[in-house]
Amino acid sequence: MADTATAPPEAVPAAARKGARGGATLWRYVLIRFLLIFPTIFILVTTVFLMMRVTGDPITAALGGQLTPAQLEERIEAAGYNRPLIVQYLEYLGQILRGDFGTTLDGQPVVGVLARYGGATLELAFYALIVAFVVGIPLGMLAAALRDRWGDAVLRVFAILCYATPVFFAGLILKLVFSVWLGVLPSSGRASPRIELQLNRLDNSTGIFTIDAIRTGNPAIIGDVLQHAILPGVALGLLTAGVFLRLVRTNVIGTLAMPYVDAARSRGISEYRLVRKHAYKPALIPIITVIGLQIAMLLGGAVLTETTFEWMGLGYQLSEYLKARDYVAVQGIVALLAVIVALTNFIVDIIAAFIDPRVRY
Asked: Are residues 9 and 17 in contact, defined by beta-carbon separation less than 8 angstroms?
C-alpha cells in the first residue's frame, strides 16, 4: 500500500487532504486569535489610563480639600504623579506586565480586591446566563414558530424591552413587586446576615456562596442563597435574554427556509417538530459566538445590578471606589476586567471554531 506521506497528491484521499487543511486552518485561527489578545488589552488599558488622567492626578481627586496644599504636593511627589505623563504611562505598563494593577487608597492590592470580591460577580454572571438561556432560547424558538403572527410580534417587543430597559430600573421594579408588594423574595444581599457570616467563616471558602452553601449540605442555607440570587440574576439575565431571543429567532427562521427542511415539511412533519428536530441545534451555534460579547455586557451590567441589590461583588466595590474618588483602584479594576474579558472572548472564539468550521474560514 502506498504511503500517503510519499505518494503524489492525486494518490492521497481527498478526505485526508481536506482534514489536513482543516487542522492547519484551525491552528492558524487559534494563533491569530491569541495574538489579537495583546493589542486588545493594550488599547483597553491605554484608554482606561488616559481617561483616569483626564481628571488630574488621583491624589488631588481623592484627597483635595482634605489636605493642605503642602501635604498634597508631598503626596503627589511621593506617588510620582508630578512626572511627565508618558513616564507615568510607561511605568504603569511595566506594572501591568508584572501583574501589579495598583493599590487602593486604603492599601489593598487591586488583585487582592479581585480575589476577595470576584467570586460574587462570577456567581451573579452565572445566574444571569442561566436566565438568559432559559428565557431567550425557548422564546426565540417560539417566536420563529409563530413567525409574522401576533405572538411573534409580542415576543419581539419583549426582546426589545429586555435589551433596552436599564438594569437598575428592572432591578427596582423586581424589588418593588416581589419584595415589597408580594414579600416572597429578599430585596438585597447575597444571603441572610447570619448565613453570610457562616459562609464567610468556612474553611477554604471559595467566595462563591452557591458552592460554599452546597458544601455545608444544609438545605436551609442552600435555599436562602438561591432565594437571594433570584432577583439580581433575573434583572441582569433579562438584558442578555433579549439578545438571545432575537438571535435564535433569526437563525431558526433561516434554517426553516433550507431545502432539507422543505423536504421534511413536504412529508407532513409538523412545524413544531421541524423547529425542535431540525432548526434547534443550528440556531445555537451563533449563540456560542456571541457569548464572549455578552460576558463583557454582563460585567458592565453587574456594576448597576450589584449596587441596586447590595450584592457585595466587584461591581459594588467599583461603585464604592468611584464614590470615594479612588481612581487608582478604579483604573486597576477596570484594567483587570479588560484582561478577563479579552481572555474570555479568546476562549469562546476557540470553542466556536471547534463547533462550527465556518468560523475559522
From this structure: yes
